Please model this.
Amino acid sequence: MKSQRYSNHHGIQVMRMQQMTTASMLSVATIWGVYFMPTSPWLGIIGSLAYLLGYSVVLAIEFVALVLVNRSDTSPKANLNTLMRAFWAESKLVAKVFCWRQPFRANAAPDQTQGQKLQGQRGVVFVHGLLCNRGFWTPWLEKLQNRGVNQPSHAFIALSMEPVFGGIDEFVDQIEIAVQLVTKVSGLAPILVCHSMGGLAARAWFKRQTGYARVHHVVTIATPHQGTWLARFALGGSGRQMRQGSDWLRQLDELPVQNGFEQLPKSNSHRADLFTCWYSNCDNIVFPTSAAMMSGANNRFVAGAAHMQLAFTKEVMEATFDMIIERPNL
Model:
Protein backbone atom coordinates (compact mmCIF):
# COMPACT_ATOMS: atom_id res chain seq x y z
CA MET A 1 0.00 0.00 0.00
CA LYS A 2 1.28 3.42 -0.87
CA SER A 3 2.32 5.77 1.89
CA GLN A 4 -0.47 8.15 2.88
CA ARG A 5 -0.64 11.15 5.13
CA TYR A 6 -1.92 10.42 8.60
CA SER A 7 -5.00 12.33 9.69
CA ASN A 8 -6.84 11.30 12.84
CA HIS A 9 -10.52 12.31 12.77
CA HIS A 10 -10.49 12.42 16.59
CA GLY A 11 -13.82 10.60 16.71
CA ILE A 12 -15.98 13.60 15.83
CA GLN A 13 -19.05 11.47 15.13
CA VAL A 14 -18.82 9.54 18.37
CA MET A 15 -17.81 12.65 20.31
CA ARG A 16 -20.79 14.69 19.12
CA MET A 17 -23.24 11.81 19.53
CA GLN A 18 -22.17 11.10 23.09
CA GLN A 19 -22.03 14.78 24.00
CA MET A 20 -25.66 15.09 22.92
CA THR A 21 -26.66 11.91 24.76
CA THR A 22 -24.97 13.01 27.98
CA ALA A 23 -26.43 16.51 27.80
CA SER A 24 -29.91 15.09 27.15
CA MET A 25 -29.71 12.72 30.10
CA LEU A 26 -28.58 15.46 32.46
CA SER A 27 -31.21 17.90 31.17
CA VAL A 28 -34.13 15.50 31.49
CA ALA A 29 -33.01 14.36 34.95
CA THR A 30 -32.66 17.98 36.10
CA ILE A 31 -36.02 19.05 34.71
CA TRP A 32 -37.73 16.05 36.30
CA GLY A 33 -36.09 16.73 39.66
CA VAL A 34 -36.92 20.45 39.64
CA TYR A 35 -40.54 19.75 38.70
CA PHE A 36 -41.28 17.02 41.27
CA MET A 37 -38.98 17.81 44.20
CA PRO A 38 -41.18 20.56 45.73
CA THR A 39 -44.25 18.30 45.93
CA SER A 40 -42.81 14.77 45.95
CA PRO A 41 -39.10 14.60 46.79
CA TRP A 42 -38.89 10.82 46.53
CA LEU A 43 -40.50 10.82 43.09
CA GLY A 44 -38.13 13.57 42.03
CA ILE A 45 -35.08 11.65 43.21
CA ILE A 46 -36.15 8.26 41.85
CA GLY A 47 -37.18 9.70 38.49
CA SER A 48 -33.93 11.61 38.06
CA LEU A 49 -31.86 8.57 38.93
CA ALA A 50 -33.90 6.45 36.52
CA TYR A 51 -32.96 8.75 33.66
CA LEU A 52 -29.31 8.87 34.66
CA LEU A 53 -28.91 5.15 35.38
CA GLY A 54 -31.25 3.70 32.78
CA TYR A 55 -28.31 2.24 30.87
CA SER A 56 -27.74 -0.12 33.81
CA VAL A 57 -30.97 -1.90 32.88
CA VAL A 58 -29.48 -2.64 29.45
CA LEU A 59 -26.30 -3.91 31.12
CA ALA A 60 -28.37 -6.13 33.42
CA ILE A 61 -30.14 -7.67 30.41
CA GLU A 62 -26.74 -8.31 28.78
CA PHE A 63 -25.49 -10.10 31.90
CA VAL A 64 -28.61 -12.27 32.06
CA ALA A 65 -28.12 -13.21 28.39
CA LEU A 66 -24.45 -13.91 29.12
CA VAL A 67 -25.37 -16.40 31.85
CA LEU A 68 -27.97 -18.18 29.70
CA VAL A 69 -25.78 -18.45 26.60
CA ASN A 70 -22.72 -19.52 28.58
CA ARG A 71 -24.50 -22.55 30.02
CA SER A 72 -23.45 -24.56 26.97
CA ASP A 73 -19.94 -23.08 26.74
CA THR A 74 -16.89 -25.02 27.88
CA SER A 75 -15.17 -22.01 29.51
CA PRO A 76 -15.21 -21.56 33.31
CA LYS A 77 -18.52 -20.21 34.62
CA ALA A 78 -18.78 -17.16 36.87
CA ASN A 79 -20.75 -17.36 40.11
CA LEU A 80 -23.37 -14.80 41.14
CA ASN A 81 -21.03 -12.74 43.33
CA THR A 82 -18.47 -12.48 40.54
CA LEU A 83 -21.15 -11.45 38.05
CA MET A 84 -22.50 -8.78 40.41
CA ARG A 85 -19.04 -7.31 40.95
CA ALA A 86 -18.44 -7.23 37.20
CA PHE A 87 -21.84 -5.60 36.63
CA TRP A 88 -21.13 -2.88 39.20
CA ALA A 89 -17.63 -2.22 37.82
CA GLU A 90 -18.94 -2.04 34.24
CA SER A 91 -21.79 0.29 35.24
CA LYS A 92 -19.30 2.79 36.65
CA LEU A 93 -16.91 2.41 33.72
CA VAL A 94 -19.63 2.88 31.09
CA ALA A 95 -20.56 6.23 32.63
CA LYS A 96 -16.92 7.31 32.81
CA VAL A 97 -16.10 6.29 29.22
CA PHE A 98 -19.28 7.23 27.36
CA CYS A 99 -20.21 10.34 29.35
CA TRP A 100 -16.78 11.83 30.00
CA ARG A 101 -13.66 10.40 28.36
CA GLN A 102 -14.98 9.96 24.83
CA PRO A 103 -17.35 12.94 24.47
CA PHE A 104 -15.30 15.53 26.38
CA ARG A 105 -11.74 14.25 26.87
CA ALA A 106 -11.03 12.28 23.69
CA ASN A 107 -7.85 14.24 22.96
CA ALA A 108 -6.62 14.65 26.53
CA ALA A 109 -3.57 12.49 25.72
CA PRO A 110 -2.40 13.39 22.19
CA ASP A 111 -0.60 10.98 19.91
CA GLN A 112 3.14 10.76 20.40
CA THR A 113 4.80 10.80 16.97
CA GLN A 114 7.62 13.34 17.20
CA GLY A 115 11.05 13.34 18.80
CA GLN A 116 14.35 11.54 18.36
CA LYS A 117 13.90 9.68 21.65
CA LEU A 118 11.18 7.60 20.00
CA GLN A 119 13.69 5.94 17.67
CA GLY A 120 14.61 2.39 18.61
CA GLN A 121 11.69 1.97 21.05
CA ARG A 122 8.69 -0.18 20.25
CA GLY A 123 5.72 1.88 19.05
CA VAL A 124 2.04 1.14 19.56
CA VAL A 125 -1.14 1.55 17.52
CA PHE A 126 -4.32 1.48 19.63
CA VAL A 127 -7.51 0.32 17.89
CA HIS A 128 -10.83 0.85 19.68
CA GLY A 129 -14.14 -0.96 19.37
CA LEU A 130 -17.64 -0.10 18.21
CA LEU A 131 -19.14 3.23 19.39
CA CYS A 132 -15.77 4.34 20.77
CA ASN A 133 -12.99 6.76 19.92
CA ARG A 134 -9.43 7.30 21.09
CA GLY A 135 -10.69 8.57 24.45
CA PHE A 136 -11.32 4.96 25.41
CA TRP A 137 -7.55 4.42 25.71
CA THR A 138 -6.75 7.50 27.84
CA PRO A 139 -5.38 5.55 30.87
CA TRP A 140 -3.10 3.59 28.55
CA LEU A 141 -1.91 6.71 26.72
CA GLU A 142 -1.24 8.61 29.94
CA LYS A 143 0.78 5.68 31.25
CA LEU A 144 2.93 5.72 28.10
CA GLN A 145 3.36 9.50 28.33
CA ASN A 146 4.29 9.53 32.02
CA ARG A 147 6.90 6.81 32.27
CA GLY A 148 9.43 9.06 34.01
CA VAL A 149 12.37 11.24 33.01
CA ASN A 150 14.85 8.38 32.77
CA GLN A 151 12.48 6.01 30.98
CA PRO A 152 12.48 5.63 27.18
CA SER A 153 9.63 7.19 25.22
CA HIS A 154 7.46 5.22 22.83
CA ALA A 155 5.69 6.41 19.71
CA PHE A 156 1.96 5.73 19.72
CA ILE A 157 -1.19 6.55 17.81
CA ALA A 158 -4.68 5.98 19.20
CA LEU A 159 -7.07 5.82 16.30
CA SER A 160 -10.56 7.26 16.13
CA MET A 161 -12.10 5.21 13.35
CA GLU A 162 -15.04 6.42 11.34
CA PRO A 163 -17.66 6.04 9.91
CA VAL A 164 -19.09 4.74 13.15
CA PHE A 165 -21.58 2.30 11.63
CA GLY A 166 -19.58 1.37 8.55
CA GLY A 167 -18.18 -2.02 7.69
CA ILE A 168 -15.04 -3.21 9.46
CA ASP A 169 -13.06 -3.25 6.21
CA GLU A 170 -13.47 0.53 6.01
CA PHE A 171 -11.07 0.86 8.94
CA VAL A 172 -8.21 -1.06 7.33
CA ASP A 173 -6.69 1.93 5.54
CA GLN A 174 -6.78 3.98 8.75
CA ILE A 175 -4.83 1.27 10.55
CA GLU A 176 -2.37 1.05 7.66
CA ILE A 177 -1.58 4.76 7.76
CA ALA A 178 -1.07 4.69 11.53
CA VAL A 179 1.21 1.64 11.27
CA GLN A 180 3.29 3.36 8.59
CA LEU A 181 3.78 6.48 10.70
CA VAL A 182 4.59 4.68 13.97
CA THR A 183 7.05 2.45 12.11
CA LYS A 184 8.72 5.46 10.53
CA VAL A 185 9.01 7.33 13.82
CA SER A 186 10.26 4.36 15.88
CA GLY A 187 12.17 2.46 13.23
CA LEU A 188 10.50 -0.75 14.43
CA ALA A 189 7.42 -2.79 13.63
CA PRO A 190 4.72 -1.71 16.12
CA ILE A 191 2.48 -3.57 18.51
CA LEU A 192 -1.25 -3.30 17.85
CA VAL A 193 -3.42 -3.14 20.99
CA CYS A 194 -7.07 -3.65 20.16
CA HIS A 195 -10.34 -3.76 22.06
CA SER A 196 -13.47 -5.59 20.95
CA MET A 197 -14.27 -4.92 17.25
CA GLY A 198 -10.84 -3.29 16.93
CA GLY A 199 -9.27 -6.73 17.05
CA LEU A 200 -11.26 -7.78 13.99
CA ALA A 201 -10.26 -4.58 12.20
CA ALA A 202 -6.63 -5.41 12.98
CA ARG A 203 -7.09 -8.92 11.59
CA ALA A 204 -8.65 -7.50 8.43
CA TRP A 205 -5.60 -5.24 8.08
CA PHE A 206 -3.28 -8.12 8.96
CA LYS A 207 -4.76 -10.31 6.23
CA ARG A 208 -3.73 -7.83 3.55
CA GLN A 209 -0.06 -7.99 4.47
CA THR A 210 2.47 -9.85 2.34
CA GLY A 211 5.17 -9.43 4.97
CA TYR A 212 4.37 -10.21 8.60
CA ALA A 213 7.48 -8.41 9.83
CA ARG A 214 5.41 -5.21 9.57
CA VAL A 215 3.82 -5.95 12.94
CA HIS A 216 5.63 -7.14 16.05
CA HIS A 217 2.55 -8.44 17.87
CA VAL A 218 -1.22 -7.98 18.05
CA VAL A 219 -2.97 -7.87 21.43
CA THR A 220 -6.74 -8.27 21.32
CA ILE A 221 -8.93 -7.64 24.36
CA ALA A 222 -12.52 -8.93 24.42
CA THR A 223 -12.55 -9.35 20.63
CA PRO A 224 -15.31 -11.55 19.12
CA HIS A 225 -12.98 -13.65 16.97
CA GLN A 226 -15.77 -16.18 16.50
CA GLY A 227 -18.56 -13.62 16.55
CA THR A 228 -20.89 -12.91 19.43
CA TRP A 229 -24.43 -14.01 20.24
CA LEU A 230 -25.42 -10.41 20.98
CA ALA A 231 -24.63 -9.27 17.41
CA ARG A 232 -27.79 -10.95 16.14
CA PHE A 233 -29.57 -7.77 17.28
CA ALA A 234 -27.10 -5.41 15.56
CA LEU A 235 -28.25 -3.35 12.59
CA GLY A 236 -25.06 -1.58 11.46
CA GLY A 237 -22.62 -3.02 8.95
CA SER A 238 -19.91 -3.86 11.48
CA GLY A 239 -22.48 -5.33 13.86
CA ARG A 240 -23.79 -7.72 11.22
CA GLN A 241 -20.24 -8.78 10.42
CA MET A 242 -19.73 -9.79 14.06
CA ARG A 243 -22.66 -12.21 14.07
CA GLN A 244 -21.74 -15.80 14.77
CA GLY A 245 -21.08 -17.67 11.53
CA SER A 246 -21.24 -14.53 9.38
CA ASP A 247 -19.82 -14.68 5.86
CA TRP A 248 -17.39 -11.90 6.75
CA LEU A 249 -15.90 -13.86 9.67
CA ARG A 250 -15.56 -16.96 7.50
CA GLN A 251 -13.80 -14.96 4.79
CA LEU A 252 -11.43 -13.52 7.38
CA ASP A 253 -9.98 -17.02 7.83
CA GLU A 254 -9.95 -17.96 4.17
CA LEU A 255 -7.22 -18.00 1.56
CA PRO A 256 -6.12 -16.66 -0.80
CA VAL A 257 -5.45 -13.11 0.36
CA GLN A 258 -7.71 -10.93 -1.75
CA ASN A 259 -7.84 -7.29 -2.89
CA GLY A 260 -4.97 -7.71 -5.31
CA PHE A 261 -2.36 -8.61 -2.72
CA GLU A 262 0.02 -11.50 -3.10
CA GLN A 263 -1.35 -14.91 -2.18
CA LEU A 264 0.33 -16.44 0.84
CA PRO A 265 1.14 -20.08 1.54
CA LYS A 266 -1.59 -21.74 3.57
CA SER A 267 0.76 -22.40 6.45
CA ASN A 268 1.23 -18.64 6.88
CA SER A 269 -2.38 -17.62 6.36
CA HIS A 270 -3.12 -16.83 9.98
CA ARG A 271 0.14 -16.36 11.84
CA ALA A 272 -1.95 -16.72 14.97
CA ASP A 273 1.29 -17.02 16.91
CA LEU A 274 1.59 -13.23 16.60
CA PHE A 275 -1.67 -12.76 18.55
CA THR A 276 -2.37 -12.59 22.28
CA CYS A 277 -6.12 -12.76 22.92
CA TRP A 278 -7.50 -11.77 26.33
CA TYR A 279 -10.97 -13.00 27.27
CA SER A 280 -13.20 -13.26 30.33
CA ASN A 281 -16.21 -15.21 31.58
CA CYS A 282 -18.00 -11.97 32.58
CA ASP A 283 -17.79 -10.29 29.19
CA ASN A 284 -21.30 -8.91 28.72
CA ILE A 285 -20.81 -8.13 25.01
CA VAL A 286 -18.72 -10.99 23.65
CA PHE A 287 -20.29 -14.29 24.60
CA PRO A 288 -20.25 -17.24 24.72
CA THR A 289 -16.92 -16.77 26.49
CA SER A 290 -14.96 -18.96 24.08
CA ALA A 291 -15.95 -16.69 21.18
CA ALA A 292 -13.15 -14.32 22.18
CA MET A 293 -10.54 -17.05 21.68
CA MET A 294 -8.56 -17.48 18.47
CA SER A 295 -7.26 -20.82 17.29
CA GLY A 296 -3.48 -21.01 17.54
CA ALA A 297 -3.13 -17.72 19.44
CA ASN A 298 -1.90 -17.15 22.98
CA ASN A 299 -5.37 -17.09 24.54
CA ARG A 300 -5.25 -15.67 28.06
CA PHE A 301 -8.16 -15.90 30.47
CA VAL A 302 -9.07 -13.32 33.14
CA ALA A 303 -11.86 -14.31 35.49
CA GLY A 304 -14.60 -11.88 36.45
CA ALA A 305 -13.97 -8.92 34.12
CA ALA A 306 -16.75 -7.30 32.09
CA HIS A 307 -16.34 -6.18 28.49
CA MET A 308 -14.74 -2.77 28.96
CA GLN A 309 -13.39 -3.56 32.40
CA LEU A 310 -11.14 -6.23 30.88
CA ALA A 311 -9.16 -3.57 28.99
CA PHE A 312 -8.18 -1.85 32.23
CA THR A 313 -7.45 -4.80 34.50
CA LYS A 314 -3.99 -4.83 36.06
CA GLU A 315 -3.08 -8.18 34.54
CA VAL A 316 -3.88 -7.14 30.95
CA MET A 317 -2.22 -3.73 31.17
CA GLU A 318 0.94 -4.94 32.90
CA ALA A 319 1.47 -7.86 30.52
CA THR A 320 0.99 -5.62 27.50
CA PHE A 321 3.25 -2.85 28.78
CA ASP A 322 5.94 -5.44 29.51
CA MET A 323 5.72 -6.41 25.86
CA ILE A 324 5.94 -2.78 24.73
CA ILE A 325 8.91 -1.77 26.85
CA GLU A 326 10.85 -4.99 26.28
CA ARG A 327 14.18 -4.10 24.70
CA PRO A 328 13.93 -4.82 20.96
CA ASN A 329 16.45 -7.10 19.29
CA LEU A 330 18.05 -4.61 16.94
Remarks:
- The two ends are 25 Å apart (CA to CA).
- The chain is about 40% helix and 10% strand.
- The mean pLDDT is 90.
